[in-house]
Structure to design on (361 residues):
């Protein structure tokens, strides 16, 4: 297999994550050659990713692959790839709602979608889940404008708002069929509103849920317990053996501290998120609304409307996420919407570590 050592690439911040964005046609067609190139582009496997673009954390070791869509309901296809930091792995098993924020602007920058004069809406098929999203963002004079006044927790400064709407998702909201399951002796709510997530009251794990991500990551007893819960919950959710996969995520819930609906600490799944993923937040928000779920008695839901504030280690994420009950009494997700920001950091050619130059880990 001959794999190239360079590719056209745009580095973007999408929400609270950062990743390399490629047109599908700028990468090798086969998954094997593509993943080999992406590992070398990001500098993986290496805990510091010193020889590549990766930022030594799962939140900054991400790739978006974008192409024109054959689906009449979408303008572009977006495939998300999580590149392992210290493991030579590239996974398409999860989606990423943060990198999603950069997909519309990238599609315009690369000429896949014509910009409107003022605002542009891009219909995006998320290849990982098959679900659709619509992103709209300012394009004054037919060009993407990244500057603006929107603020999101976890990102310094302000930028142009990217409004993302998710019409109803495709899969069941409660993959186990229950509002509450007991796994590894722990009550959980397994929910999927775009991201398979296991909700757990922090108190049932003997932590407060207000610890710093670093303190939680250093708690090895907690790590063992979370691993046990995740492996069992993954099977119940129909995900099979999740030992080597990045889903499901685990969100610990505690009472809100700052007027929101709930405080969260989210494991993705080993590192603790410094904020929370977009689809992760969509799943938490929908899960909190499920009658009989583990959020009851912990969360404070607003009396009216679909908008919720999810608190996290570096602030909060406001999200609109509603659920309804179908004729059989099964909860289903309705529309979800969120505001993110994104920014082009560089555009050019990325030069990968040469093939065969094994990294010293
Ligand atoms: O849940 C991290 C992130 C994510 C995923 C992760 C995400 C989402 O913050 O939509 O964006 O959960 O691995 O980028």
């Amino acid at each position: 297999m001959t794999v190239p050592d360079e590719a056209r690439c745009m580095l973007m911040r999408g929400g609270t994550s950062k990743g390399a964005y490629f047109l599908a046609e700028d990468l090798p067609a086969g998954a094997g050659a593509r993943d080999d190139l992406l590992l070398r582009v990001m500098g993986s496997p290496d805990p510091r990713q010193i020889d590549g673009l990766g930022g030594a954390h799962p939140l900054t070791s991400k790739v978006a692959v974008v192409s024109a869509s054959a689906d009449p309901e979408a303008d572009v296809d977006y495939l998300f790839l999580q590149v392992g930091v210290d493991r030579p792995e590239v996974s398409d098993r999860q989606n990423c709602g943060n990198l999603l924020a950069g997909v519309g602007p990238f599609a315009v920058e690369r000429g896949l979608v014509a910009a409107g004069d003022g605002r542009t809406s891009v219909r995006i098929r998320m290849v990982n889940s098959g679900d659709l999203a619509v992103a709209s963002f300012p394009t004054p004079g037919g060009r993407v404008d990244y500057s603006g006044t929107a603020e999101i927790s976890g990102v310094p400064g302000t930028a142009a708002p990217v409004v993302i709407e998710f019409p109803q998702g495709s899969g069941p909201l409660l993959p186990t069929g229950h509002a509450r399951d007991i796994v590894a002796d722990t009550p959980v709510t397994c929910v999927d509103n775009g991201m398979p997530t296991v909700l757990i009251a922090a108190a049932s794990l003997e932590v407060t849920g207000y610890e710093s991500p670093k303190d939680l990551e250093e708690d090895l007893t907690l790590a063992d317990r979370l691993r046990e819960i995740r492996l069992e919950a993954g099977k119940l959710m129909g995900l099979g053996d999740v030992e080597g996969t990045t889903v499901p995520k685990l969100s610990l819930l505690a009472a809100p501290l700052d007027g929101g609906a709930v405080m969260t600490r989210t494991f993705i799944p080993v590192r603790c998120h410094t904020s929370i993923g977009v689809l992760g937040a969509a799943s938490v928000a929908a899960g909190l609304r499920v009658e009989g779920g583990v959020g009851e008695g912990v969360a404070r839901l607003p009396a009216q409307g679909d908008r919720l504030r999810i608190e996290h280690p570096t602030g909060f994420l406001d999200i609109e996420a509603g659920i309804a009950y179908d004729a059989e009494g099964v909860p289903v997700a309705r529309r979800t919407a969120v505001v993110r920001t994104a920014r082009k950091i560089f555009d050019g050619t990325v030069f990968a570590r040469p093939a065969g130059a094994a990294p010293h880990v």
Q: What stands out?
A: Residues 16-17, 58-59, 96-98, 195, 246, 249, 268, 277-280 surround NQM (CB under 6 Å). Residues 220-236 form the longest helix (17 residues). The first strand starts at residue 6 and ends at 14. The domain at 181-329 is CATH 3.10.310.10 (Diaminopimelate Epimerase; Chain A, domain 1).
